[in-house]
Design brief:
Residues 7-397 form the Major facilitator superfamily (MFS) profile domain. It is built from 14 helices and no strands. With 407 residues, the chain is mostly helical. Helix 3 runs antiparallel to helix 13 (341-364), helix 4 packs antiparallel against helix 7 (164-184) and helix 9 runs antiparallel to helix 14 (372-393). The chain is globular, with a radius of gyration of 21 Å.
Length: 407
């Protein structure tokens, strides 16, 4: 029987571990322009890669740290991930070129997958029913608050101590979380329940998952949505400064867009049973088409500078649509995975992250000090995503994917 009660300390530990991903992406955003100036960024690298290639590192971490946690235990996998994250943070903090920062960020991305993936497994090991719901509801609040507050925290640190201090904060937080984890969290996966890490079996099971037309289509659709979001994260500070001259107020406007995702999550929880995930996704993707086309048209009419009120209003609704899509696309992709849910979750996360990085880097390369490339990204995501989700609905009757076990 799994536990049905949990201390506030344990909930807080899980929430902070999970929030490390969002904090690592968002807190550094106000510093990108200063890093570009100080380190004399030159092609082919740009400060956009400081954000996008962090996600590229997560591709590998998400793919392997889930199965590794099944083999060596949740606690060891978490410590391993945090250790890699610390190494990457040190590389970035003492960088003398943007290339070194990018290497550090890739290592950070690989490492942060440990807290992201292994914490979910750790929770599933211990709790079910109301106890799990309580944990997830608290963590959901943090999911909303961290993206809203992280840029403000980064800007405060930047103002008083410079951009390297932001990485020092990352390092201090990861060290404290590691000490807290080792001292207070027992292992939740006993040796007799562990699954031997068998590369050949993982490859065979992975191939079974990817042969599912529905799962593969939804991985690509999820990656496109994540890619549009990542493109925004990579260029947000530049757009606000170049187009509207916004610098000090950037964290506040960034928080307004993040609130759109939070509101969507609340609304989706209330209405998804009534309308269904398929209809919710199709409606949100059509919203991206309409809003992306609208923002692109306004950018053309106003010579690359649409009215700020219109930009904020349309951006809020765009991120509301993205908030609807994130949870539903993931849940739809997981439906037919059966006993392969753990490996499938890793493949969905890593596959969609890879698509997202390719998308964000490709569209981000067209940044021209206007919102037009961003609007084009949202429009493309809406059109292609709608087609992919429709095609996936035609494969909705696929049987549950069978599992291949190691000999």
């Amino acid at each position: 029987m799994k536990k049905q009660s949990i201390s506030f300390e344990r909930i807080a530990l899980y929430a902070f571990l999970t929030s490390l991903t969002a904090l690592s992406i968002d807190a550094v955003l106000p510093a990108l322009r200063i890093i570009e100036t100080e380190l004399h960024v030159e092609p082919p690298l740009s400060t956009q890669h400081i954000v996008s290639l962090f996600i590229f590192g997560m591709v590998f971490g998400e793919l392997f740290l889930g199965p590794i946690s099944d083999a060596i235990g949740r606690k060891r996998a978490l410590v391993l991930g945090l250790g890699l994250y610390m190494v990457g943070t040190l590389v970035a903090m003492f960088s003398t070129s943007v290339g070194m920062i990018v290497v550090g960020r890739i290592l950070q991305g690989i490492g942060v997958a440990g807290p992201k993936i292994a914490t979910r497994a750790l929770i599933r090991d211990q709790f079910e029913g109301e106890a799990m719901a309580r944990i997830m509801s608290f963590m959901f609040v943090l999911f909303i608050l961290v993206p809203m507050l992280a840029p403000a925290m980064g800007q405060i640190v930047l103002a008083f101590a410079g951009w390297r201090a932001i990485f020092a904060v990352y390092l201090a937080l990861s060290v404290l979380l590691c000490i807290w984890l080792v001292a207070r969290q027992p292992e939740t996966l006993p040796p007799q329940s562990r699954i031997r890490f068998h590369p050949a079996t993982l490859v065979q099971n992975g191939a079974r998952i990817l042969r599912s037309r529905r799962v593969t289509l939804l991985i690509v659709a999820t990656g496109l949505v994540f890619g549009a979001h990542l493109q925004y994260l990579s260029t947000a500070a530049d757009i606000f400064f170049d187009v509207y001259g916004v610098s000090a107020m950037f964290p506040a406007y960034f928080a307004a867009f993040a609130a759109g995702i939070g509101l969507a999550s609340i609304v989706n929880a209330q209405v998804v049973r009534r309308f269904g995930m398929q209809a919710m996704c199709e409606g949100a993707l059509l919203g991206l088409v309409i809003l992306g086309l609208g923002l692109l048209s306004l950018s053309l009419v106003y010579e690359g500078r649409p009215p700020f009120v219109a930009f904020m209003a349309m951006g809020f609704v765009i991120f509301f649509c993205i908030g609807i899509l994130f949870g539903n696309l993931n849940a739809m992709a997981m439906q037919s995975l059966g006993q392969l849910a753990g490996l499938g979750a890793s493949l969905i996360a890593s596959g969609s992250s890879l698509v997202a990085v390719i998308f964000a880097v490709a569209f981000g390369a067209f940044y021209n000090q206007t919102p037009m490339p961003l609007a084009s990204g949202f429009l493309t995501t809406g059109v292609l995503g709608f087609v992919l989700v429709r095609l996936a609905s035609g494969a909705s009757q696929e049987p549950v994917i069978p599992v291949k076990r190691a000999a």
